[in-house]
Write a structure and sequence with these properties.
45% helix, alpha/beta, 348 residues, 7-stranded mixed β-sheet, 3-stranded antiparallel β-sheet
């Protein structure tokens, strides 16, 4: 079993291996020694893994209940959040109890936000079951829900006590959903690791998935350690996301997936950066890897509308926009632009 330790405001381990889901209860009991659990999951993941996780908790002597909500980004809202709060209150959950987030990024973000706010904060454990959540969203303590004004605009930083990544859970993903999560994996290679980028480009991804996930969470964990509250280096993790969040909002979080939107954002900004002399010879390499992973390079949404929508993103500050640019594979920096400079950038 691979272990990566994140030394943030709360130190915790990320455990990565094939076939460790049925040991989740034992692994959790070594970290959280009291209280009952609430397993929060969606209706898709529940059918595959819900009962297995409940049994593992029971076998480890952990009392647990389960709450299931509809899958998809449309459930990442205050309505779902209130259902979790009410369920916990009615069933007598206290500050000594904890949440287990079983699923992808929507489950992790929503259940994590519930944990960060119920009774002013309780423990939670992440059991991510998608490429995106194992490689990225389960690590780092970002929790949030969407509102009408934009994606992830309401949330808190709340680190998990443990992250359990069973890479066998990725075998039940459709090819399209697996590809979608690869956008965040490629992002980590682009911003921090030419070695990871080369592995993704030249090797069979599924055959090397445990090593790939370890490399991803190591990158993410180190960035979080250096900048837990996203005031500096952690902003690099937003590569591709400025345009991606605007795309998701444009389509009202339906039709275009998060990973596809990130892929378009990374490709678009890298091609613009090359035209403006901010990098050289990397846009085509990025595009080739995105295509290998089944991800799109472009979208038909009008750029002027995406510009307006991106100004509503949380990366828009009073002083302008923070844009992440890769000067080379594995090298990235945050460029601060005024709103006018950002408009000119997009026109390129």
């Amino acid at each position: 079993m691979e272990k990566v330790t994140v030394n943030a405001s709360t130190s915790y381990e990320i455990l990565i291996d094939k076939g460790i889901l049925d040991s989740a209860g034992v692994l959790i009991s070594k970290v959280i020694t009291k209280g009952k659990a609430l397993v929060v999951t969606d209706d898709n993941v529940d059918g595959f893994y819900g009962e297995r996780v409940m049994k593992s908790l029971s076998d480890a002597g952990i009392e647990a209940m389960k709450l299931v909500f509809p899958h998809g980004e449309a459930s990442k809202n205050h309505s779902t959040l209130l259902k979790i709060y009410e369920f916990m209150a009615v069933n007598g959950y206290t500050r000594s109890d904890f949440i287990v987030a079983l699923g992808g990024g929507v489950v992790g973000d929503t259940a994590g936000f519930a944990a960060s706010t119920y009774m002013r904060g309780i423990d939670f454990v992440q059991i991510p079951t998608t490429v995106l959540s194992q490689a990225d969203s389960s690590v780092g303590g970002k929790t949030a829900v969407n509102i009408n004004g934009g994606k992830n605009l309401v949330g808190l930083f709340h680190q998990p006590r443990l992250v359990i990544c069973d890479t066998d859970t990725l075998n039940t993903l459709t090819p399209e959903f697996f590809s979608d999560g690869m956008a965040e994996v490629i992002k980590h290679g682009m911003i921090k690791s030419a070695e990871l980028f080369d592995i993704l480009s030249n090797k069979d991804i599924k055959e090397n998935i445990v090593d790939i996930m370890k490399r991803n969470v190591t990158i993410k964990g180190k960035v979080v350690e250096n900048d837990e509250r996203e005031k500096g280096e952690r902003m690099l993790l937003n590569f591709g996301h400025t345009l991606a969040h605007a795309l998701e909002k444009y389509y009202n979080y339906t039709g275009l997936t998060h990973g596809s939107a990130v892929a378009v954002g990374m490709s678009t900004f890298t091609h613009i950066a090359e035209r403006r002399g901010m990098c050289r010879g990397i846009a085509d390499r990025l595009d080739a890897l995105l295509v290998k992973c089944g991800l799109p390079l472009t979208d038909e949404a009008p750029l002027h509308e995406l510009y307006t929508l991106s100004l509503r993103d949380k990366k828009h500050l009073a002083s302008g926009m923070n844009i992440v640019i890769c000067s080379d594979i594995g090298q990235s920096e945050v460029k601060k632009m005024s709103v006018e400079e950002y408009a000119e950038f997009l026109k390129s």
